[in-house]
Amino acid sequence: MNKKIKIFFLVFQLLTLFIISPNIVYAISENECVSCIDTHDFCTAILAGKNASMDGSTLTLQTADCGHCDFTFRHAPAADYETEAMRKIYSKTQYALWPTIEEAGETPRDEQELYKEWYTGIEIPQVGHTHAYVHGVFGHINEKQLGINESTIGCRYEMRNPNAKICITELTMLAMERCETAREAIQLMGSIAEEYGYGGPDSGEMLAVSDPEEVWEFEIMPVGPLWTPESGTPGAVWAAQRVPDDEVSFCPNVSRIGEIDLDNPDYFMASSNVVSFAAEKGFYDPASGEPFRFNIAYSPRTDSAVKSGGSMARLWRLFDLVAPSEGFSPELPLDEFPFSTKPDKKISVQDLMTISRDNYEGTSFAPGEGVSGGPFGNPRYYISNIVLDEKNYSYPRTISQNRSEYTTIVQLRNWLPDEIGGILWIALGSQDTSCYLPYYAGVNAIAESLTVGNNWEMNRDSARKAMDYVDFHTAVAYNIMIEDVKEAQFKWEGEALTRIAAVDLKAYDLYLNNSEEAKKYLTDYCIDNTNQVVDAWWKLADDLFVKYNHFRIYTIEDGERKYSTIKMPEWYQRLIVEKENLSPIPID
Q1: For the segment 223-258, what is each residue's pLDDT rounded down to a tens digit?
Q2: Which residues does 559 contact at the CB level (< 8 Å), separation at least 6?
Q3: Going by fewer Cβ within 10 Å, which terminus of the chain is more open, N or C?
Q4: Prediction pTM value
Q5: Strand, coil or helix: 411
Q6: How many C-alpha atoms does 373 have within 13 Å on its Cβ side?
Q7: For residue range 10-44, what is the model confidence (pLDDT) as tens digits?
Q8: Chain center to CA of 533
Q9: In Å, how far are 217, 358, 399, 545 from 430, measured between CA atoms?
Q10: Helix axes 182-196, 168-178, angle to 10 degrees
Q11: β-pair type (391-394, 404-412)
Q12: For residue 458, how many other CB atoms are within 10 A of its CB?
């Protein structure tokens, strides 16, 4: 290929990337061509093996940090199909809005107008029976205790394939419909992507794929815009690594799979082209004597928490929160962190809730502990970067995000029937002002309030808007008002966590006689709990408004109405005096 043709293709690819994916963030490293990588900071994922958790369940977490994506959830019922039935394949961008309940009604998915727009023209043989599952932007849990969470990891620019038909969202839906184990799901998603071509609106993606026994990190990349099904080569490159049962792994938008040992199938899986494609493209030299590393070949990242000014501090922070005894340095490059680590203490669902709300408190990266947090220590005045005098300044990107659409924790337990053993914990909006809601794998439906709403309209029937309403009020005087929110979280999440054992027991007793009765009980419990929490959050927002109105604190103590003024901290008052050049008033 001559130089002019090469330049043409490079320009074409870059223009295509800007058109189809306006959310890509481009970063330059002073040491290497990281500008050859499309990078994202939309999601954080945590993966824990069953022996690393407090109760023996496998645990995964995802924070879906977008800010303009769909935050609704849906329940897809199980279905049976005739032998000759075909399954249409759709390309659903992560950033599109799902059809509303009103738009969908009783109309089959294939006949809905919005789905017609997403139809790729590909059809594959339908299976005789599909499993019921709950999904948000991705399929998250099915009735067989298969769980999936996600984090975008990016890839080299030249690997993007906007023409590909298979996207990451559809892969998760297919896995939910057809699979029962993590291994089965990975093989299915990998084989479909290889055959029909992966990419479209997506680049490099990581899926945390789990069942009650195992947790896997599955990473998949496109193979460039020139690939066609007629080429006879795989239309995707992928690898999967199992998290050791007694360890925890993390993926905060960074490819985490390094060396791959395909002679150890208990811990590794990969596409047939996993090494050859890298060698063909010049991403890896087999003659170098260096071991092949998946992340270095396809999505290299050498920045660190310190080097990035905190914008890429999540990986270090997660390791430090879970295994502080290891003493991981914030100066350690991202690609030098181990794939997983043993936690200092076994972790629980509540621990994951707490971690999802972390704002780097007590570290040098804490955005709420300085001027950037304002007078009331709000850590979520998120700024991706600051540009002044033609200079760029980085800004810490915390685990907790006020632009999060939702957070999901998948908890899978091998000592209970699948319908009872699996629980999807859902928090809507900002993690630190939201409330986690449990949904069992065996539910027949979800609360209607979870299925409605978007980021552009106010909807008082939407559970997410109730959470947003609290979040918006809390921003006024964050470090004061967040204490009221924590009190509500302690009550409602504490009750839900405490009640799980009793709900399990009753559901199991019903299950022994009639599994459908057990599912109905679980459905009623989860929906009723959601309705109570949503009502409580609307009331909490109103209470915050009344209590802190006019920048005062209005309280009633022993029947006596009292109020006091919210005072600015002294350091902030000094800033005002200095900035405004105020002069002291003489005191007589």
Answers
A1: 999 999 999 999 999 999 999 999 999 999 999 999
A2: none
A3: C
A4: 0.92
A5: strand
A6: 22
A7: 444 434 333 333 332 323 333 344 446 666 678 99
A8: 22
A9: 25, 11, 10, 18
A10: 130
A11: unpaired
A12: 9
